[in-house]
Each structure stands twice: as C-alpha cells, then as structure tokens.
Queue: 2 jobs
Job 1
Amino acid sequence: MNQLIECIPNFSEGKDQSILDALSDIVTSHKGVALLDVKPDVSHNRTVFTFVGEPQAVADTAFLLCEKATELIDLRRHRGEHPRMGATDVIPFVPVKNVSIEECVALSKVVAKRIWEELAIPVFLYEASASSSNRVNLAAIRKGQFEGMPEKLKQEEWQPDFGKPQIHPSAGVVAVGARAPLVAFNINLNTDDLAIANAIAKKIRGSSGGYTYIKAIGVKLEERGIVQVSMNMVNTDKNPLYQAMEAVRFEARRYGVSVVGSEIIGLTPAKALYESAAYYLQLEDFDPELQVLENRVGELGE
Amino acid sequence: MNQLIECIPNFSEGKDQSILDALSDIVTSHKGVALLDVKPDVSHNRTVFTFVGEPQAVADTAFLLCEKATELIDLRRHRGEHPRMGATDVIPFVPVKNVSIEECVALSKVVAKRIWEELAIPVFLYEASASSSNRVNLAAIRKGQFEGMPEKLKQEEWQPDFGKPQIHPSAGVVAVGARAPLVAFNINLNTDDLAIANAIAKKIRGSSGGYTYIKAIGVKLEERGIVQVSMNMVNTDKNPLYQAMEAVRFEARRYGVSVVGSEIIGLTPAKALYESAAYYLQLEDFDPELQVLENRVGELGE
C-alpha cells in the first residue's frame, strides 16, 4: 500500500519568475513527488505550491524548497498585502492516502528539526503538530509578522519549537505542521446582495456558532452579478460538503434566495465527494475503500 | 499512465470448492492482476469472478481461466437454475482507467480468437464487441442453452464469431465481449407491497420505456419487511445513479411511498459517485480528472 502526503508550502515571493522557476525545478526534478500546482499572487507577493508524493520524498522536497527559498528570498526587502513571517512562510502536510494525521505530525517534526539544524531558521509547529493550544492557529503565530518577530520571540510563550529565540536575518521564521485536507467550496446565490451572502456565511461558520470546521465569508462575483458564500472546509470528515450545501440552502430560503450552483476551487480528496454522494443517494453501509474499484488497485501485484 | 481493465468471468460451477480454488489460484498467481471477488451461487451452480489489472495481464488471465475451466468443468453433467451455455459461460471486459471501450473490444477479440484456436471452443462476441445487433444481448445468444446449442449453431444467423459451428463437447460455447461498467444499485422503499416496487421498476427501466441504460425489477426484502427496486445501471455515464434515485423518488410519491435507503452491491467506478456528488452539490465545471487529488497521482515520478 503506497502512502501519499500532500504538501502546500507558501513562499514570500509572487513576482520574480526566476525564483518561482528555481523552486518548481526542485519539485519536478525530485523522484517520488508530483508538482500539482503553482499559484503566484502578485499583490500578495506570495506563491502557493502544491505537490504530492511518498512521505520521505515529500519531506525531503519540502526541506529542499525551504533551503532554496532561504537562498533566494530576502524578507527584509519584501512588501506584499498578505501577512508573512518567513521567506518560506508555512509548510503544511496533509494526509491523502493510507496515511494518518499522526504520521503527518511526525513527518512535520522531522522536517522542522532539519530546517533549524541545517538552515538555522527557528520553527513553530502549528495545527495538528502544535505544542500548545495557542499555536494551533497560524494567524496567532504569525501575528506581528517578520518585522515584529524579534520582539515576539523574547516572550516566554513564543519560544520556537525548534531553534533559538532569534530570527534568521533574511528568512525570518517558519511554521510547519500537519492538518486535515482542506476543500475550497463556494456556493453561488441568485442575488447580488452581498449582505445576504455575509449573513449566511455567519450562520454556517464555526467562528460565529455554525459548523466547527467551516470557515465562510460572503463574496461578490461582479462579472456574473451574483454573490457567493465562499468557504474553506477544513475537515470534510467532520463537516462534509453536503452539510454546507444544505445549510446554505435553508438559510438562503429566509431571504427568498436559492442556490444556483457551486464550485470546488483546486483539489479535493475523493473521500469528500464519496461522502456527499452517499448522503444524497441515501446509501446504506457503503464502504469506498472496498467498493470503489480504483481503491482496489493497490492490491495489484507487480 | 497505467491502464486498468476489469474482467468478470462467469463459470458454470458453484459448489465444488476445489474447482473454485484452482480458478482463484490462476488469478492470484498472475502478475499484474488483482482478484477482487469470488461469488459462488449454489442454487445457480455458478460463480462470478472479479479481477482487475493491466490490459495484457487481464487478457492472459482470462484465457488461462477459460483453459482451466475447460479442463475441470463438464457441462454435460451440470445442473443449476441459471441459464448457461459454456463451462466458461461469459467473459466481459470493462474499461476502468485510461482505457476506452474500443480498446476493450479489441482485447476481447484477441482473447476470443485464442480461445477458439487453442481450446477449440466456439466464441460469440457480445455487447460492445458484437458483430451484429441481435448479438448485443447475452440472453439472445444464450437462448437454448448448452443442450440446444448444437441445433442453434446450424442456423445461418447463429454462426459463431470465432470457430466452427460445433460446440466443444464438454465446455459448450463462450460469450466474450466488452461492456461499460455496471453498477448494482438497489433503492429501498417504506412499503412491503411488491406490486409497487414492480410498478416503479417498470416505469424506470429501458425495456419498458424508461431510462435506456437502467435494468430494474421489484424485489422483496423479507427480513426487513420492505421492498426494493433492484437495478443494474449498465451505463452510468449515460444514466447516472442520481437519475435512478430521483426517478424512483418521484414515481414512489404517487403511492405515498418514500425512499428509505439504498445500496451499491459490490463495486462501482469512482466516476459514478463523482457524477452524483456533482449533481446534488450543483458543482459547476467540476473536472474529477484534474480536481480529485488521487487522480493526480499518475503524475508521480518513479
């Protein structure tokens, strides 16, 4: 049974194509990993890489990317709209196939240790890898950003998980951790009233009393003249896509508004779709591991 | 991109475990294929094997199974409730991944030719491999069964596609062909009235004017005191699972009856589930090939 882990490192460079090419080359030239996506954002001056592969290959590639970013990106000269604290800002590991979140946590710690020992960049562990509850949320760790980090590291409660309480002069600090797969799921409504989308988002998101593992905001789609509830489904095992859909549908009803469509941005684990198919088809005792043909291919001999 | 074909050969033996073991051994000892299921039926005196693998390995394994069945099964002594015409009764090839139905048709002809040339069993091509429209349906080819086959083969229109018009003395004739994946999908109703399940089945199945690629009958679930519409979804690209579900739902409504659940028996291609998830979640422009993480694994280096 081959194991698969996804890694989605964020780098503080969104403009210089030569730097992005150098980072891409590291992934494409490494055995056992596949580069799935490179998404630069010019105004954020930040790029999100997505790659997937076997655990050891993913760990090695993540380290090599961080090493290359340390060499090529100098945060002292970085300007961008997105908050950041490191040249390599964050490295999340996500279980995809035949891997537990615990194994991803273990892997994240190996990579974190190596980043400190070989690159002298202090590392914070976050999400499932966090060493305390106030380090689960990346935003809390990153607060103060690169410029405020030297002062922040002097505080007792913000000692790095690996390394000394002193930033790398040009590369800052890095957050490394394991988290459940995230699905970017947006639901479109037949109204152009952003207030309605925001009101619905507030009803369904965990931070204001809705579903624990749904993050949501209202967004205007100018070109289509409609609004959408834009969501990050941060744990589709706990809060599957169908819950978001049905909850948005019944919240919208009070405004006489309906769902006209939806979209998944980027990637989704197959499981998130099986879950919703099984719900709507009312499947009893359905086991995707056993019953989805493609999942049985692992049993193939050489 | 590795290619995957499923093969579901049916053998006219459902009782003698030593024979079933000998057939299983052929699959499990062959490289490049995985045995997914062996389902014997004692009253039918028939066993359905399911295996999957690379095209060449699947073709070779199918032939070797037919060879072994010819050696071990004598149809002259076979009694069972299920109609049959051969020791190996039927060998369907089903495209699973990165394979077209046309490639499966080509493969079926290679296997059919080999069965005639090396085992001297006449072969009929059926379903997508059929040489004429009256040979698409397996039941039409099999009509008359083993005992009536010598007479049937004398008719001009029932000349075998491969071989002379004379049955193999103990192994009869074989049907070989390619077909789309089939999903066994049953929908349970909150009534014990079999007449209602039958009436709904008639409304939705292709043979009586319903959906072309749905076969359906009513079935009583004695132990649960309910009935179900039992379906073979013979082409889930053309008639996805959600069509069956929604059609059964609205037909049931006229009897004041509701759907209480459903089941998928055995295997389903992932695609059949993506299709229904996308329908119910109202996904716009969703492309499972690009957006389902597991489907991107083929891009992995060695």
Note: Residues 30 and 165 of chain B are 33 Å apart (CA to CA).
Job 2
Amino acid sequence: MHTTSDKKLIEVCYTPGQYPLYEGKFDLVVVIDVLRATSAITTALHYGVEKIIPVGTVEEARAFKAKGYITAAERDGQVVEGFDFGNSPYAFMDEKMKGKTVVLTTTNGTRAIQLAASKCTVVMGCLNNLDFLCQWLIERHENTLVLASGWKDKVNLEDTICGGAIANTLLETRRFRSNEDSTVAAKFIYRSAREHLLSFLRASSHRRRLIQLNIQQDVKYCLTLNTVPCIPVLKDGVLVRLDYHPVNTEYAIKTPFSSHSN
Amino acid sequence: MHTTSDKKLIEVCYTPGQYPLYEGKFDLVVVIDVLRATSAITTALHYGVEKIIPVGTVEEARAFKAKGYITAAERDGQVVEGFDFGNSPYAFMDEKMKGKTVVLTTTNGTRAIQLAASKCTVVMGCLNNLDFLCQWLIERHENTLVLASGWKDKVNLEDTICGGAIANTLLETRRFRSNEDSTVAAKFIYRSAREHLLSFLRASSHRRRLIQLNIQQDVKYCLTLNTVPCIPVLKDGVLVRLDYHPVNTEYAIKTPFSSHSN
C-alpha cells in the first residue's frame, strides 16, 4: 500500500502556453507531439540518427544549415523551403542517416521541448514508444508532467489522448497520483478513444489538416502503437537515445487500445 | 439539409487565458462557471434579483459597497471578509433580494464575463439552465463560443462537461459545426460523464476543494439539471434576465444525463 506521500505526481498539460501554470513541481517532463515531431524524433533515434538538435526558429535552423548540418524544418505541416526534411518519420528511416546529427525545428514540438529544457529531465513520448516509455516512467518513479505540444497553443486530440494513456497507465500502478482536472479529463478522453483510435481522430482538426497535405501514410504511422522501443532524452540541449534496457524485452506494460485501431 | 455555409460555429474554449486564441469569429459567447458563479447569477435573476453588476476585482466591489450597493465577493471558494455574500446560489433565493441590484466579483467567473463583454452578445450558462439555454441558442443560430471559466486559467471538469453538453446538443441539430479539437474533446468528456455526473465529478480537483470548504449543498445544487428557466444576458455591463418565452413551456431540448445523477 502506497500512502499519498509515497506517490509521485502525474499530470497532463495541454499546451506549451499553459506550461508556466504547471512547472516547478516536476522532476521529469514528457513532451508529446504525436503528429509528428516526437514520433519522428523517436523513430529517427531508433533507426540510427545519433543526435537531434531541436531549435525554436527557422532562422536558427538556417544558421545550422549554413554550417553544413543536415536540417529539418516544418511549419504548418509542410517542409520549409530550402530545408532537407520536414518532420515525416519516414525521412529518418534511411541507412544514410545512421550516426548523423540532425537539426530540427517544428511548428509546435520544438517549442515545447525548449520550454521544459531548463530544470527537468526531458524525454519524448508518442504512440510509437508508449508502453516502453510508460515502463521506464514507472521504474523511474518521479514527479512527471506530460507536456502536450497542442496546435498553436490550443489543445489537440491526439496529444491529449496520448497524455491520457500515459496518465492512466501510471495511475493504475497506484504509485502515482494526480491533482489536476486536465489530467482527469485527458484520462477520460483516452478511455473514450482507445477502442477506435483512428475513427476518433477523424474528428481531429489537426488530422483533417494533415490529410489535406496528403500525408496520410505519416498519420497512420504516427498512430501505430509500440513500434519503436526507444526513448529520446535531452542532454545538454541535444536529443539522444536513452540507455534503457528493460529486463523484459516484451514490454511489461500493456496500455489498452484496440489492437486493430489502424 | 444544411450545407457547411449555412451552419454556424459552436466551439468550446477551456479557460479565459485561451480566449484570445478563439475570439473574433463569434457573435455570441456563453460564459460558464458551474461551481458557482454562473449558477448563482442564473438563480439570482430567476428568483427576482433585478440586476447583477459583475466586477473584476475586490477593490471595485468595495467601491460599490461604499456607495451602498449589496455586494458579493468570492475568492478561492470563500466569502471575502467585509462582504454580504460570496457566490452561493442559496444566498440569492430570498424575498428580500427581489428587485435589488447586486455587485458581484468571483475568482474565475467575472473575469470571463468581462473578457467577452466587448463585442458579442454575452449570456450565462450552467447546468441549472442547460436545456432552456440550448433551446434559445438553437433558435438564435449564431456563431457561438462557450467560454469556460476554468480554475485560475487551468481547465476544470465541470465547466468542460457543461460546455461539451451544449456543443453536443447544438451539433446534433446539424445546424452547427465545429472546427476545434477542444470542442470535440469537451463533447467526449460530456459523453463519458453524462451517465454518472456526480461520481465523475468526484474526480474533480475543484469539487474536492469545495468539499473541504463545507459547501456540499451548493455543489449538489449547481450540479442539478434544468431547475431554472432563466438566461442572464449582459446589457451595458449589467446582467439582467433575457426576455425569452419558448413556445413549449416544457423545454423541447433534452440533453441526455442520467436522471438520478444526484
């Protein structure tokens, strides 16, 4: 039996703009941008990219490009002109990227990463690494904030569902507790969505926007669960793969989602 | 059949802090502060209070008090020292209040009212006037924003559920449409909650806070559906009762909630 004082916090913040209302109580921040920044970062590090340098602005990314870096820049769902890539996860599944350093800026995700970077341990979460990440979070057992990237400071469905899934899994261990209504609400949105994730997200404004951009394949990839046993962690401003080897190679945690949600 | 262009917007904004991200597209704003400002205002005008002057600060309320006004001031769930009332709905169900003007300031609700006051028609919503309000909103058929008061700029469950119920009812007429994920998410939170509203809200941080303050009776009152056929509307900065007489005295709209949620 865990008493309240043993329990660590798990909370979900919906947007970077609300982060100042939450920060200060947490040792660990999980940044989420399911469509597509954190899915792409997780995928890239899993497939062999060595480092990702997240930067806030296109100008900073341009400065790195001028120095010869591989640069990826996305705004409003599209590759910014003059850059090598945007934030499609598929762009990083390439033999030629192995061992490379990539500089990345995205509409929402990189801002969230930089916000959280100052004091806490910062890792990346997405649906692709969900159970692997949850297992590590439970073992780590720290006051944990899920910071959703949202869409231009408004809440978005896919990040809220992913955050709700993490909160639900951690709370079920009874080693975590939550004080915020945002966390309770995210948990209930996840529970509404888990049986039919893709049809649920059909209602998402962000997904509608991405479909217009013809990146249906990316959306399907980003909404697929547990494909990538990798946790990106921020070290000195650079994202690298966390050295984590769970005893079970099959993840012990099984976050309930319908198995054929895609 | 209504085409997209015929349809009016219905969106839900979770906090006053996010209002600037939404404003500008709407003709009508419904301010919600279920626990307890908008429930108290609706109740007060229904039971005979003639006018309510919402003010943002305790200092403004004090200035009115010095001029001899009946003043109500709530901060953090409690009556502010030196004031006649806080925001308990029961305080306004009094023969002596009939025909009176009341000056009111609350932690979250009055700020939301003042934010929205500039350009739009502004009305008050709560669970007590839910179906009556929805019927009027459908007849009015304008671009409608539900502005939840939240709790100190964070989302709260009870306002989100109430906003989700309004959005759900308006969208089901097919005469309204929604573009925002916040609206979709609110709708799904309402759908999760409607079968067991009170037990759902047991998870709410705000309700926990209010229980500590021993206002269980107020909470129960504010979570009771359709007790007060009254819509407060802001006219020249003053809240008065909207002159609305639906043809059906039994509300035509029935928002599904479990009948014995209390």
Note: The interface with chain B takes residues 14-15, 17-18, 21, 151-157, 160, 179-182, 184-185, 188-189, 191-193, 200, 203-206 of chain A (CB under 8 Å).
